[in-house]
């Protein structure tokens, strides 16, 4: 299918410093020449309107039923479990991430019509934190590096090891084989160490989710969920059987208020798996939490996998929102897609009547033309050149799917999803990262902006294997791998980004380095298969990227590095308000929250307890009980409630500002609120400095 270039529309005027404004004018002029397309906002771009199918023609997943774990326990504190030391033996499945067997001939290879072929000046801040992490301790490839940041820790998982650091990079635990997490558990989760790990911090519950699969029958998804905010503490542990007893390849998880969502690529059965794990039950330590399963036959509508939305930020999704899953299709790819597009699926779970749950492809959203098929040679995974060797490494762009994560954020005025995929640029001239921001995912999904970041067309550097996220101010950070055939451009880890005020469809802030590589991979072609970009839950501004590189040339001696950076244009959370509080029932119901800054005068707080629906109300707090604290007290203890779950909301007032404001358990600001015993609540800004 041929594609027409999308029109260039007028841009919003933005405020910059004098120097930045001058650059913006020059940079915008360069982009008008360098870009063959610029993505435009949904308010003016009918060309980007999504295609919403009629109910009768919707592609729907097949509901396969409800099941639960075959094994459960509560671990000892991780700090007391001796790490199983890496032994240099690769126990990964040999055909992990293999072709599906459903691939057909490629279609027409398009020229990229959203190409950013030049780099901006160096405006993006340098890393504030960097530190080396795990190396190849299992003699295996690829590393599958991913990590997440919490209030006090950075936790990483790779094939086939994990480690826990503090926020400065001090090693607190490990390195240990991943199946250390299931030591003493019994069964395949304890005895196998097969990889494809995922670690996610759940910011709504202040918990850690750590997972990997087993690669021999009976196949399992092994899940460990911390019982507290401390990743060195105890864990609830489950072994969930893979539906249909097939390898649950390429598992990807997402945190959402009503579930932990899991996607799988069940290659041996030519299926895409879509699972919902009952999050409330898991947080409560239920030995047999519900798991709902849907299956979808593999086609161009889902390609080689889908990504569930993963929650970022303070504001919860609107009540009743489904989880949004994204896929990607290329008309030049192997599955016969009719166009280049993003597919948006909605997973609506019903825990009371699981059979009423739905998993549906609701929108196919056309995107600017791209090419996912890189001319790899001599093998299908020999793609990206490196200095000092003829060995090339994998780009994985030919896999028809977006790259981890599908990051969701609710800004109040709009909801956004951001993700990316590696792409070919100009038939192998270079590689780039195509990124997307999708807005209004529930009502009228639209590509608000998109771009292919590929300055390699001018500087010769290949950029691929990216991960992207947005901060609380709407700025984006994109991290990725870089390399080319000429020293000193060894495989390295770099990042770029954009401010919310930058021209749409651009990453004009320049490029910074987390670590420069000093060697190449001389044997294996595998790279990735994924990486991670996370946003700090403490300030909701700092980006944390984790990826692989090579410190010295070797057959397969990959290493990993962590880097963090923040735009000055993002105001850290916590400048005058308590953070969001959402606590499931636990054995210790002592609630605490951040103290407000000095200079605010004496602070009183109201602690509300209620059901979740009442606390999420936008008109009043609908509380069941309220208690006031005084004299800047920032903790509150209560007797164990009889509720299955207890949810809390803390609001505050100050003699200094003569008013108060509140945030619900997801951080949503209240325009008005009911009268409390402490004082009539009204919305005001943060306490002045």
UniProtKB/TrEMBL annotation:
Name used for this protein in its record: Fibronectin type-III domain-containing protein
Species, as recorded: Candidatus Fischerbacteria bacterium RBG_13_37_8
Taxonomic lineage from the root: Bacteria, Candidatus Fischeribacteriota
Region Disordered, annotated ranges: 85-106, 659-678
Ranges that cross the membrane: 20-40
Keyword Transmembrane helix assigned: yes
UniProt keywords, alphabetically: Membrane, Transmembrane, Transmembrane helix
Biased segments, Polar residues type: 662-678
Highest taxon above the source species: Bacteria
């Amino acid at each position: 299918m041929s594609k027409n270039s999308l029109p260039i529309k007028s841009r919003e005027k933005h405020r910059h410093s004098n120097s930045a404004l001058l650059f913006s004018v020059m940079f915008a002029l360069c982009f008008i020449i360098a870009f063959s397309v610029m993505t435009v906002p949904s308010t003016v771009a009918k060309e980007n309107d999504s295609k919403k199918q009629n109910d009768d023609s919707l592609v729907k997943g097949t509901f396969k039923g409800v099941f639960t774990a075959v094994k459960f326990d509560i671990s000892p504190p991780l700090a007391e479990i001796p790490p199983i030391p890496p032994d240099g033996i690769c126990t990964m499945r040999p055909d992990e991430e293999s072709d599906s067997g459903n691939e057909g001939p490629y279609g027409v290879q398009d020229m990229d019509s959203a190409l950013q072929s030049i780099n901006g000046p160096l405006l993006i801040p340098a890393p504030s934190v960097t530190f080396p992490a795990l190396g190849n301790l299992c003699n295996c490839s690829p590393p599958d590096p991913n990590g997440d940041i919490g209030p006090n820790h950075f936790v990483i998982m790779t094939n086939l090891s994990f480690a826990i650091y503090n926020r400065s990079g001090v090693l607190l635990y490990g390195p240990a084989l991943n199946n250390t997490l299931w030591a003493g558990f019994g069964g395949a989760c304890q005895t196998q160490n097969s990889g494809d790990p995922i670690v996610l911090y759940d910011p709504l519950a202040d918990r850690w989710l750590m997972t990997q699969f087993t690669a021999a029958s009976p196949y399992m998804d092994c899940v460990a969920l911390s019982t507290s905010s401390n990743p060195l503490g105890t864990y609830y542990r489950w072994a969930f059987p893979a539906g249909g007893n097939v390898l649950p390849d390429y598992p990807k998880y997402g945190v959402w208020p009503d579930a932990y969502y899991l996607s799988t690529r069940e290659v041996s059965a030519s299926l895409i798996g879509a699972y919902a794990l009952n999050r409330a039950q898991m947080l409560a330590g239920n030995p047999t939490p519900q798991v709902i399963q849907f299956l979808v036959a593999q086609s161009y509508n889902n390609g080689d996998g889908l990504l569930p939305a993963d929650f970022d930020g303070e504001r919860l999704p609107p009540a009743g929102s489904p989880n949004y899953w994204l896929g990607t299709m290329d008309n030049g790819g192997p599955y016969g897609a009719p166009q280049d597009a993003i597919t948006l699926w909605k997973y609506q779970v019903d825990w009371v009547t699981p059979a009423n749950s739905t998993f549906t492809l609701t929108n196919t959203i056309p995107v600017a033309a791209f090419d996912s098929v890189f001319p790899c040679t001599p093998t299908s995974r020999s793609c990206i050149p490196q200095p000092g060797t003829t060995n090339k490494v994998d780009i994985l762009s030919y896999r028809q799917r977006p790259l981890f994560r599908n990051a969701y954020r609710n800004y109040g005025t709009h909801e956004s999803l951001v993700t990316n995929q590696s792409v070919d640029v100009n038939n192998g001239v270079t590689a780039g990262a195509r990124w997307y921001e999708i807005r209004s995912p529930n009502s009228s999904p639209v590509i608000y902006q998109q771009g292919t970041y590929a300055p390699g067309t001018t500087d010769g550097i290949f950029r691929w294997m990216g991960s992207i996220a947005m901060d609380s101010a709407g700025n984006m950070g994109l991290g990725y791998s870089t390399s080319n055939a000429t020293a000193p451009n060894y495989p390295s880890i770099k990042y770029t980004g954009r401010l919310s005020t930058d021209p749409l469809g651009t990453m004009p802030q320049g490029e910074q380095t987390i670590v420069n590589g000093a060697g190449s991979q001389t044997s294996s072609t595998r790279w990735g298969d994924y990486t991670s970009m996370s946003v700090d839950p403490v300030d909701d501004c700092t980006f944390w990227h984790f990826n692989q590189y090579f410190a010295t040339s070797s057959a397969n001696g990959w290493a990993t590095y962590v880097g963090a950076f923040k735009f000055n244009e993002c105001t850290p959370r916590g400048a005058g308000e308590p953070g969001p509080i959402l606590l499931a029932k636990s054995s210790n119901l002592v609630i605490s929250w951040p103290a407000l800054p000095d200079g605010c005068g004496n602070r009183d707080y109201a602690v509300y307890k209620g059901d979740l629906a009442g606390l999420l109300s936008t008109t009043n707090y609908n509380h069941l009980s309220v208690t006031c604290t005084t004299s800047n007290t920032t903790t509150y203890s209560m007797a164990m409630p009889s509720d299955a779950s207890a949810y809390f909301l803390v609001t505050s007032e100050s003699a200094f500002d003569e008013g108060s404001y509140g945030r619900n358990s997801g951080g949503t600001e209240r325009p008005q609120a009911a009268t409390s015993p402490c004082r009539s609540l009204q919305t005001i800004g943060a306490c002045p400095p």
